[in-house]
UniProtKB/TrEMBL annotation:
Lineage: Bacteria, Pseudomonadati, Bacteroidota, Flavobacteriia, Flavobacteriales
Name of the protein described by the UniProt record: Metallophosphoesterase
Cross-referenced SUPFAM superfamilies: Metallo-dependent phosphatases
Record domain Calcineurin-like phosphoesterase: where: 36-306
InterPro entries xref list: Calcineurin-like_PHP (IPR004843), Metallo-depent_PP-like (IPR029052)
Keywords: Glycoprotein, Hydrolase
Pfam families with a match to the protein in the record: Metallophos
Domain of life of the organism encoding this protein: Bacteria
Length: 427
């Protein structure tokens, strides 16, 4: 088991050991490997505004263009293997969780169209596979809406492209040749799996369906849809395991506690709805991750706009099965610096090893060269994976270190981020 091997890492930190029941991917992973992917999220573009201010504005056009230029430069200089975008394209709408009035859908859709077109141009220029998955602001019908609206239209309907369609750009549709689409059973629901490189399957979930704020503009049922996705996830992991593939699970809204909401709602501030009542999706997900912990090499999410991480536990709450990392938002609406990441991973095990965050101030006309590195900031050894380093550290220690980068180097957080770190079964 993943946890058993990491326990040995603690005991024999300086030793080299062989454990037959553990596959080689959990052996110490050297930081020097150059395999990378670009991790983007939460741009929240307002194409009708030029400037951008902290805690006031979503991403204006000056910041959007500065981001595009910086991302273009990073891709050109590092040549990442692929790009992942974990949702939230347009600027925030005025009201959450209700259908967006028709007169407000025109600018909303224009923002979606502008950013999807810009990301397509960026990925196509560099011939990189780009995987997109839905955020809670991305539905045409409004914030936290189903991916399809009342007319069964999705954001992709705004930028039709038969030869190179979203949700995965620049892939080969033939499954025998990587990169390829693997499974897309419900395109109107927004979840799918794809193989961006040989040996790695990315399972892209639509966890907006699991949110307590979700509403089904398309007439479908949340409980049925979310349970269907959970069953599909399990089947995808089983299929990947049978093919000896490694898996990244990517999503927008992560499981666990919303650290920002915790100060008002305590343990009720869960990101996912506590449904079904007899076995909540949070608990089902933790069980699935525990069952396939040797197949899963990383979990990626967005939504919080901050540079944070989570440790997922098995249902007993005793063993850490996996770690999840976020991508900060480009929008500074939550009082964070705009940022995005270049993530380093092991070429064989696909385990996450490290990341570099590129950040800026929102008022700058150019992005600049400010960066920080995860292992250096946390004082971790590059000889071990992020999972191994994080699972052997204490919660108190991680909390202190996370406070340094949480707002993407824009001051200390104004609330306690510790409740969002540990993801355990709901009682």
């Amino acid at each position: 088991m993943k946890t058993f091997k990491s326990f040995l890492v603690v005991i024999l930190l300086s030793s080299f050991c062989f454990i037959s029941c553990k596959e080689s991917e959990k052996a110490p992973q050297k930081k020097s490997y150059s395999n990378t992917f670009l991790f983007l999220s939460d741009i929240h573009l307002n194409s009708f505004k030029q400037t951008t201010d902290y805690k006031v504005d979503d991403t204006g056009m000056i910041l959007w263009n500065a981001f595009l230029q910086k991302a273009d430069s990073v891709i050109a200089n590092t040549s990442p293997d692929f790009i992942i975008y974990t949702g939230d394209l347009p600027s925030h709408v005025k009201d959450c969780c209700i259908p967006l009035p028709e007169n407000e859908r025109v600018p909303h859709n224009k923002n979606i169209e502008t950013i999807l077109s810009g990301l397509r141009k960026l990925a196509t220029k560099h011939k990189k596979t780009l995987l997109y998955l839905p955020g809670n602001n991305d539905g045409i019908a409004g914030d936290y809406a189903s991916f399809a609206d009342e007319n069964q239209q999705t954001p992709f309907s705004l930028i039709p492209e038969n030869k190179n369609p979203y949700p995965v750009l620049n892939i080969n549709p033939v499954d025998s040749i990587t990169p390829s689409m693997v499974s897309n059973p419900e395109p109107k629901m927004g979840y799918y799996s794809a193989r961006p490189i040989d040996g790695l399957r990315v399972i892209a979930l639509n966890t907006v369906i699991h949110s307590a704020n979700f509403f089904g503009a398309d007439g479908t049922n949340q409980l049925t849809d979310a349970q269907q996705q959970m069953t599909w996830l399990k089947n995808e992991l089983q299929d990947a395991k049978s093919r000896f593939e490694k898996v990244y699970i990517a999503m927008h809204i992560p499981p666990g506690i919303d650290a920002y909401g915790y100060q008002k709602h305590g343990t009720n501030a869960t990101n996912w709805a506590k449904l079904p009542v007899n076995n909540p999706w949070n608990n089902q997900f933790l069980q699935i991750v525990a069952d396939y912990q040797n197949t899963i090499s990383g979990i990626l999410y967005g939504h919080t706009h901050m540079d944070e991480l989570r440790r997922l536990y098995d249902p007993s709450g005793q063993s850490i099965t996996e770690i999840a990392i976020s991508c900060p938002g480009v929008t500074p609406i939550h009082d964070n610096n705009p940022g995005f990441k270049l993530v380093t991973y092991h070429p064989n095990s696909k385990e996450l090893l490290d990341f570099t965050t590129y950040y800026t101030v929102p008022s700058a006309s150019t992005w600049g060269n400010a960066t920080y590195n995860f292992n250096e900031t946390f004082g971790y050894s590059g000889d071990f994976s992020m999972y191994e380093n994080l699972m052997t550290d204490s919660l108190d220690s991680i909390h202190v270190k996370l406070n340094k980068i949480y707002t993407v180097m824009h001051n200390a957080p104004s609330y306690n981020v510790e409740p969002g770190i540990e993801v355990k079964a709901e009682q």
